[in-house]
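User: quick one, sequence for these tokens?
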């Protein structure tokens, strides 16, 4: 089984309940195709570098999972027709970084560093 990191960007007007539904939908697709989800992160509403379909912001959802190539094919087939999504990206990695949370608040990061020391 290969290791993958998969990020989807939903439209800025997507409600939190719709974000949860999207997360569940794509988690189910991964599991139905013999994939195993290691971690799911909701990065929240972030600014885009440039306008995508007249949107300045997007809601980011990030998956870390194990699976075969058929999982990627099925994910991307469903994402291509989903009107709520702006972009998606899948990257194959050699190992997961499960400790670093790049989009947490600075206060949380400082607290974790104090606890480690």
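Assistant:
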């Amino acid at each position: 089984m290969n290791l993958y990191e998969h990020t989807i960007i939903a439209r800025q007007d997507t409600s939190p309940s719709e974000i949860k539904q999207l997360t569940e939908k794509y988690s189910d697709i991964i599991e139905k195709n013999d994939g195993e989800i290691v971690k799911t992160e909701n990065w929240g509403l972030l600014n885009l570098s440039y306008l995508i379909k007249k949107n300045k912001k997007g809601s980011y959802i990030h998956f870390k999972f194990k699976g075969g190539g058929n999982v990627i094919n099925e994910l991307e087939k469903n994402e291509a027709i989903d009107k709520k999504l702006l972009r998606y990206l899948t990257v194959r990695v050699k190992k997961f970084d499960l400790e670093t949370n790049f989009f947490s608040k600075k206060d949380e990061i400082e607290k974790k560093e104090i606890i480690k020391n």
